[in-house]
Specification:
One of its GO terms (molecular function) is hydrolase activity. The protein is mostly beta strands and about 450 residues long.
Length: about 450
């Protein structure tokens, strides 16, 4: 969550999340659900409502409901940020979120948005939950069952003593909660914490809001005031916040997500053999794809039946995105009717969305129809790939048809061979798309794309 602070005009607030140890995680949960809200560089995609995505591997995500909201707050500010998903002790879910519509940082709410859900397909009993009576906010709430207290701990950030600290309130029903008390205060502005428990030790990763890096702290208990820092600063070379740590369901590894902002907001992802060591390696963008325009993720493991149910309920997007293999932070888009790759995110964000239809010249091929200009398709013209209106001619249909083949640089990705010039493939050259013969290793990488969401 991008916020104002007392120290700078850019960043503020946060919270802590707890994930109880799950020794049989891979055997029990075979997928993940992510809650988020959406923004884009010019705010064209701003939607301060509850969005959901699912993933089978926890790295590549499929937005649900065409990336539209699945629930809307109707009280308080009328908008949310920082949604969080908690599986309760009875196996059902509760959704918590910041009561803040957009970027009105002057808005100070002592309340949280709350929904109950049996399966994340329907959301009921919407309400506001008061967590403190201070003249400040309650931002980025997350919660965990505290067995020592027999209650859920709701952790969020608020300003105490002139800086953001992590607060905790306790509840048994998410209808009423105790008045907040300080949970973690390292002596500087600290926000956006996230907890995992490994081998009986609790690890908290949070944002040092004075320099926009992530740090890890640990404790043998979940008691307020018990955590001490044990790592150095972690960052992708730019400001990062909102860490979210989950265990892989396919390998004995952990992943930590982090959100960034200006000039172009996006997620980064790290990997570690265990949070206990405090060492995290930044993953290559090739290995993961975030939901379109997503901000501040809240991730929880789900079962195969839950993943299937969510996909059946909300469907998968009608559009696709194409990620470059050798520039994996860039996606295929059209700009001034020229096909090119550009760094994500950008606006108009619809420029990167393509409806894949049977090839206009052969149903065994594929054609790329623009989502925001649905009468226009990618075609080649003098070997350059451009966006053009279908003129109904045989030549256009042939130029706009491509054969999808295993990726020339990686067979798990895709390449696209020209229908009427089958010795040529779509590739990027100086970031602009064209069809060319592909012979070198670099050209094979230029011609390889991941087709996903």
């Amino acid at each position: 969550m991008r916020r104002r602070t007392l120290f700078s005009a850019g960043i503020a607030a946060g919270a802590a999340a707890f994930i109880r140890p799950e020794p049989a995680l891979a055997a029990t949960y075979t997928g993940y659900a992510m809650a988020y809200f959406t923004e884009s560089p010019t705010m064209a995609a701003a939607s301060y409502n509850l969005h959901l995505a699912v993933s089978s591997d926890g790295l590549n995500w499929t937005p649900l409901n065409q990336n539209r909201p699945v629930a809307d707050p109707t009280s308080g500010s009328g908008g949310l940020r920082d949604p969080f998903l908690l599986r309760k002790q009875d196996g059902t879910f509760v959704v918590l979120a910041t009561d803040l519509n957009g970027t009105d940082w002057a808005y100070q709410s002592q309340y949280l948005h709350v929904w109950d859900s049996a399966d994340l397909r329907t959301f009921r009993n919407y309400r506001l939950l008061k967590v403190h009576s201070l003249a400040t906010h309650a931002w980025a709430p997350e919660a965990v069952w505290d067995p020592a207290r027999g209650q859920y701990a709701i952790v969020y950030s608020a300003v105490v003593g002139g800086r953001n600290v992590l607060m905790v309130s306790y509840t048994g029903d998410f209808v009423t909660a105790t008045t907040g008390q300080v949970f973690f205060d390292p002596g500087y502005d600290a926000i956006d914490g996230n907890f995992v428990t490994v081998g009986g030790v609790n690890y908290m990763y949070y944002k040092n809001n004075t320099n926009s890096t992530l740090l890890g702290a640990r404790s043998n208990s979940l008691d307020p005031g018990s955590f001490s820092v044990y790592t150095g600063a972690i960052g992708p070379g730019r400001g990062v916040e909102a860490p979210q740590i989950v265990k892989s369901n396919t390998a004995d590894t952990w992943h930590m997500w982090g959100d960034t902002w200006s000039p172009n907001g996006r997620f980064f992802c790290w990997q570690s053999s265990s949070p206990s060591g405090g060492s995290w390696s930044l993953l290559n963008d090739r290995l993961y794809t975030q939901p379109l325009n997503s901000k501040h993720p809240g991730i929880t493991p789900i079962t195969a039946a839950e993943l299937s149910g969510l996909t059946s309920q909300f469907g998968t997007p009608a559009w696709r995105r194409l990620k470059s293999y050798n520039f994996p932070d860039q996606y295929v888009r059209h700009a001034d009717n020229v096909a090119r790759i550009d760094v994500y995110p950008f606006d108009p964000y619809q420029d990167q969305l393509w409806t894949l239809v049977p090839g206009l010249a052969s149903s065994s091929g594929v054609s790329f129809r623009s989502v925001n200009y649905p009468s226009m398709y990618l075609r080649h013209w003098n070997y350059a790939v451009v966006l053009a209106a279908d003129d109904g001619t045989t030549a256009f249909r042939a130029d706009a048809t491509f054969t999808q083949v295993p990726g020339l640089a990686d067979s798990s990705w895709s390449s696209f061979r020209s229908y009427n010039f089958p010795d040529r493939h779509i590739r990027h050259a100086n970031y602009v798309l064209r069809i060319d013969p592909v012979t070198t290793a670099t050209e094979r990488q230029d011609a390889t794309f991941r087709m996903g969401y």
